[in-house]
């Protein structure tokens, strides 16, 4: 039997074109696999105490060309954003996720803030992640009315708020958090974005360029605790 015959045979079996016995065997194999799930092998860098995972997350994020700043609480977000914009000579105009509407922006801080989806003219996007993955320094950002996905990709500068308590070790840990929340009655988000460092590509002559498919800068604000 040729490779072509093997492929067509597999297609017929999967689509119901094979013998009943063959379809039953496939179904039994799936049932057995689902009945006895096995955990994925988590690498050592995806394990550790919360303090160790925090250190690893920062190191992996910076290795991926992101920058990180520690912030005491949500009330410290405006000053941290202002410092970053001033340090890099960036426009003092920010489009923020509606999920951050409770953040108090002082009138004298000199930053124009509005909320909603980003567009082609948005210079700086401010969003919030639900998890940070220490294994690779990856941010997890779900889509939704309060967290528009356009903020993650259209602005040239992306600033992300992440609570240190939301840092997990591995990808599996992040999905477990989603499943736990869904079990409480909420649906899973339509889209989950996994972002590691600023946008990059080396498709052209293996020359690494930042900002090709999205933001050229990624700045992470790590919230160390809650406001009093």
Summarize this entry quickly.
With about 230 residues, this protein is an alpha/beta fold. About 30% of the residues lie in helices and about 20% in strands.
What does this structure look like?
Strand 5 and strand 6 form a beta hairpin. The strands form 3 sheets. A 6-stranded parallel beta sheet has the order 1-12-7-4-2-3, sandwiched between helices. It is 31% helix and 22% strand. The radius of gyration is 22 Å and the shape is elongated. With 228 residues, it is α/β, with parallel strands linked by helices.
Summarize this structure as a short list of keywords or feature phrases:
single chain, Rossmann fold, alpha/beta, 6 helices, 228 residues, 2 domains, elongated, four-stranded mixed sheet
Percent range for β-strand residues:
15-25%
The average pLDDT score comes to 85
Q: How many helical stretches?
A: 6
Structural class: alpha/beta
**Tell me, what's the shape?**
elongated
